[in-house]
Design a protein that fits this description.
It is a single chain. By secondary structure, this protein is α/β, with parallel strands linked by helices. Helices cover about 50% and strands about 20% of the residues. The protein is built from 14 helices and ten strands. Strands 1, 2, 3, 4, 5, 6, 7, 8, 9 and 10 form a ten-stranded mixed β-sheet that branches. A hairpin with a 5-residue loop joins strand 6 and strand 7. Helix 9 packs across helix 13. The radius of gyration is 21 Å and the shape is globular. The termini are far apart.
Length: about 350
């Protein structure tokens, strides 16, 4: 019987000829070799599939799954999962890369402490149109192990506070646990990963946390959520916060301290939505923005989290003050100030976000 690999790396791609080689090389040059790499072509229209076939000729650990027609990233990942043979599932996007010792460190942690999943930090790399590195931000949490579901639940919001809970590509998932859920990855413009992870972590019994940053998340002008206009941004972001809130409630962990954290997440997305409402593509006038805020005041999250909001940053603190007073003009002014900084002083905007 053929030996099954320890890791299956699932890398879906669509029209990613420019970045695919670098992503693939970061996998096949790992210091740990017991893995397979599934390249899932989502009906690319450039030379990505041809490049993938050439790369597969150089390494027998690479397998190609060509889809037709195009099904989107979520269904492409689902297709790769069905074909995977490894004990653990890893994911990578075609424009991101791994550190060379990622698998070595993940496997070592699992050998020492078997677990249903492993999570690690990321390097958030901002790049310009020429793919030149502008800045890099390391995002990690303290290392540790969780031996039961109660311990796993304690770290979820710590991970979310660092934006590490949602991503697929900073985790190794035990394959049989994933498949037992029998839950497809949600299809939406973004945040599909966190919505699935809420399901995966709901009853998770063990977790290893590595205190190192092992995935390079590349932020480019054409892919960054801060640069793209997304008409459903607010609705999808609110589903994220509501999902986190509902999960904490189901675990009977919605304490005042937890609600304070959740209020911070909610305010962050709301401030971003207020700024995005000023984008010309939003096609919103002053009256539309006022109606938007009236909807916010009536929302469940406003009712249940507003009283717990006490952010530290100037912009968030100003927004919290205005929201508590239901001072619509003040809320709009905060959003306008953020929009001006983002459009006219992008360097300062990145530093304030970081």
């Amino acid at each position: 019987m053929e030996k099954k690999p320890f890791f299956s790396v699932i890398l879906p791609f669509y029209n990613a000829e420019k970045t695919l080689r670098k992503a693939v090389c970061s996998v096949i040059e790992q210091t740990f070799s017991d893995f397979e790499l599934l390249l899932v072509d989502d009906a690319s229209e450039d030379g990505g599939l041809l490049l993938a076939e050439r790369l597969a000729e150089t390494d027998q650990r690479i397998r190609i799954l060509a889809l037709d027609p195009n099904v989107g990233a979520s269904r492409a990942r689902d297709a790769g999962i069905r074909e995977a043979c490894g004990a653990y599932l890893l994911f990578l996007d075609a424009d991101d890369t791994y550190e060379s010792r990622l698998m070595e460190q993940a496997e070592a942690s699992l050998r020492k402490h078997p677990a249903d999943a492993v999570v690690w930090g990321v390097l958030e790399d901002s790049r310009d149109e020429s793919d030149r590195l502008i800045s890099s931000r390391k995002i990690t949490v303290p290392p540790g192990t969780c031996d039961n579901s109660g311990q796993v639940r304690q770290v979820t919001l710590l991970l979310e506070a660092k934006s590490l809970y949602g991503y697929f590509w900073n985790k190794a998932y035990r394959t049989d646990v994933w498949r037992a859920l029998d839950a497809p990855i949600p299809v939406q413009a973004f945040n599909e990963d966190i919505m699935f992870n809420l399901i995966f972590f709901q009853n998770l019994r063990s977790l290893n946390v590595l205190g190192t940053a092992l995935t390079h998340y590349n932020l480019r002008p054409e892919t960054s959520l801060t640069r793209r206009f997304l008409p459903d941004y607010y609705a999808i972001a609110m589903r994220r916060v509501e999902g986190l809130f509902d999960q904490q409630k189901s675990w009977k962990r919605d304490t005042p301290d937890v609600r304070k954290l959740l209020a911070g997440f909610w305010l962050r997305y709301l401030l971003s939505a207020l700024e995005r409402n000023l984008d010309v593509q939003a096609n919103m006038g002053h009256k539309d923005r006022v109606l938007f805020l009236n909807g916010v005041y009536r929302s469940r999250l406003y009712r249940e989290l507003m009283e717990y909001a006490s952010p530290e940053g100037a912009g968030m603190a100003a927004l919290a003050f205005c929201l508590k007073k239901r001072w619509t003009a003040g809320c709009l002014a905060v959003g306008r100030a953020v929009h001006l900084i983002k459009s006219r002083m992008p360097g300062l905007f990145r530093r304030l976000k970081g």
